[in-house]
Design a protein that fits this description.
mainly alpha, 15 helices
Length: 295
């Protein structure tokens, strides 16, 4: 009876902690949305609130007035996310699968080289010079895809661990006895059975591409090539620059929803992620648990 009572208390504490953690994650999103539909003067005077005194859709109307720019930025972000995630999954899995084979020649050397890239990098200036002068990616879609997120050592190690611990080596041996090549094993066995870790790493990679604004800041100077995050960053900088000027037309600036427009674009930017994540949650949970176990 004492043990059962203690178990109930433990379960209640865990439930309360999880509820508090959930609130900590959900409430900022709710506050972001409420701020985006709050009237500008009310937002400036009273600050952020879950229950604003006056509502307004002026920020979203302002976005619709610039719909062409916003939708173009949205299209670029979606295209970059899809291409970058697909290419990143392909490259990472094609490196992780051979590294999961214990009979691979030079396996330790290659694994060390992959791990070494997690600790050291060339830095921002050498990377910028390399990408712009050697690969000429400036003001192209490749500027969003190639630097930083396409191939990551952490993702490779996560996949390799999953392939080692989650897929029995006997399947590979049986396939080789039947005459299957390693490419066939990769396509027919590794990819289908590795769906949980592929979804997990795909979610990590997709979020990185979707939330990226640094590549747009460094490599994009044409306004028509801005992604949604780079556009948001550019708009924030423009509004701050205009607000800091004490000019005669400052009154017209105040007609623009300076604060709520940032909240509105931020909410619009994260909305697709909020919609997609619940459909990937079960793969994400199983993939991250199995991929994190050391083999």
């Amino acid at each position: 009876m004492v043990q059962s009572k203690g178990r109930k208390v433990y379960q209640a504490v865990i439930n309360i902690v999880l509820m508090l953690m959930t609130l900590c994650m959900v409430l900022p999103l709710v506050l972001l949305f409420m701020s985006s539909i709050t009237e500008e003067n009310t937002l400036v005077a009273n600050g952020y609130s879950f229950f604003p005194a006056k509502f307004s859709l002026e920020a979203y109307l302002y976005i619709m007035q610039n719909a062409n720019t916003v939708f173009r930025a949205y299209g670029i972000t979606i295209l970059v996310t899809v291409i970058g995630t697909a290419a990143g999954l392909c490259l990472c899995s094609m490196i992780a699968f051979p590294l999961s084979l214990k009979d691979l020649p030079g396996r330790r050397v290659i694994s060390f080289y992959v791990f070494f890239t997690m600790l050291f990098s060339g830095g921002l200036v050498p990377s910028y010079i390399m990408w712009t002068t050697m690969f000429h990616i400036k003001n192209t879609l490749w500027a969003y895809i190639l630097p930083n997120f396409l191939l990551g050592a952490f993702n490779i190690i996560l996949m390799r661990t999953f392939f080692t611990t989650g897929i029995p080596a006997d399947l590979y041996e049986a396939a080789k006895i039947d005459g299957a090549s390693y490419l066939t094993i990769y396509k027919k066995i590794v990819l289908p059975l590795g769906k949980p870790i592929l979804v997990t790493v795909g979610l990590f990679t997709g979020l990185s591409y979707w939330n990226d604004w640094t590549n747009g800041l460094y490599y994009i100077s044409k306004s028509e090539m801005l992604s949604i995050q780079a556009l948001l960053n550019r708009m924030i900088q423009d509004i701050q620059a205009l607000a800091s000027q004490s000019t005669a037309d400052s009154g017209s600036l105040m007609q623009i929803p300076q604060v709520s427009i940032r909240m509105a674009i931020a909410f619009v930017a994260i909305l697709p992620i909020l919609i997609v994540y619940p459909f990937l949650q079960k793969y994400f949970a199983s993939g991250i648990m199995l991929g994190a176990v050391k083999g």
